[in-house]
Design a protein that fits this description.
Order of helices and strands: HHEHEHHEHHHEHHHEHH
Number of strands: 5
Helix content: 40-55%
Radius of gyration: 20 Å
Largest sheet: 5 strands, parallel
Shape: globular
Strand content: 5-15%
Strand order of the largest sheet: 2-3-1-4-5
Distance between the termini: 45 Å
Number of helices: 13
CATH class: Alpha Beta
Structural class: alpha/beta
CATH architecture: 3-Layer(aba) Sandwich
């Protein structure tokens, strides 16, 4: 897609600003920044609505083509600490599409059945089918993040998973799946403010988890784990995108654009009719 077709509030295609490059450091992320966006918060509602409509059109086109044998699909991986805004992306971005073509999975603590299998077993079971956009709220990357930080398995076990995950994702891409991997980063100050809001509002109590405070205290360990994740699993076929998330309106716009970019790169069009249109019009008129 050429720059002339971009919404004028973006300087370039957003992935050029957001894609992780080897050598980038998590400690240098400005979580309050708005990379590539020349507009302001006041511009966000109208632009979000406009781009959600474009996303919905393309998403339905992808689904429609699967009815004609197109086997391609998209997997959006949302990975980030609590309060980074993963739920907001699901609601305000992916929620703008047709639910018929969306397959959403939230990966919480593994069940006994899941623990009895290889860690990728539950991931494989949740992969999007042809024509669908799959959304992973957390993902297989928990097995090199929380597992690493909490020493749930030996270092030689989780250490071998980076290459295993790369091979797994390469097979998915070779099979026709597009991966959009999003690492969402929020500052500790902003996270504290969002957790505080949950404690002040009864309608937010259900979102509060006392364990989130324990995880905050482990942020230096998570920084190391996220840095290793990005360094070892950002590939040319499945790169990571780093999203500053202190400004929710920006992170939602940015991820919307990543989805639209992926869909537009598929060169989709509406599938042609597999019947005689004029004949069917005549039959309907006479029915």
């Amino acid at each position: 897609m050429s720059e002339s077709h971009l919404p004028s509030l973006w300087t370039h295609e957003p992935h050029t600003h957001l894609e992780f490059h080897h050598g980038d450091k998590i400690a240098d992320i400005d979580t309050g920044a708005t990379p590539g966006f020349r507009g302001k918060k006041a511009d966000a509602p109208a632009l979000q609505a406009e781009r959600n409509a474009r996303f919905a059109e393309l998403q339905e086109m992808l689904y429609a083509n699967s009815r004609s044998g197109d086997t391609r699909s998209i997997l959006l991986v949302l990975q980030g600490m609590d309060t980074a805004g993963k739920g907001g992306i699901v609601k305000h971005v992916v929620g703008g599409g047709n639910p018929q073509g969306i397959q959403y999975t939230s990966f919480v603590k593994p069940t006994e059945e899941e623990l009895a299998h290889h860690y990728l077993w539950r991931i494989r079971n949740a992969l999007p089918t042809a024509g669908h956009i799959g959304v992973f709220d957390r993902s297989h990357y928990e097995d090199v993040l929380i597992v690493r930080v909490h020493n749930l398995v030996a270092p030689d076990v989780w250490g071998a998973r980076y290459d295993e995950i790369n091979a797994f994702e390469k097979a998915l891409v070779d099979g026709g799946m597009t991966l959009i991997k999003v690492a969402m980063f929020v500052s500790l100050d902003e996270q504290k403010a969002r957790l505080s809001e949950r404690l002040e509002r009864p309608d937010k109590y259900w979102k509060y988890n006392p364990g989130d405070i324990d995880e905050r205290l482990k942020w230096p360990l998570y920084q190391e784990a996220y840095q290793a994740l990005l360094d070892k699993t950002s590939t040319d076929y499945a790169p990571w995108h780093v999203i500053p998330c202190d400004r929710k309106w920006y992170s939602r716009l940015a991820i919307t654009e990543l989805l639209i970019e992926a869909l537009e790169s598929m060169n989709l069009s509406w599938p042609p009719a597999d019947f005689d249109v004029e004949a069917e019009k005549k039959r309907l008129a006479e029915a």
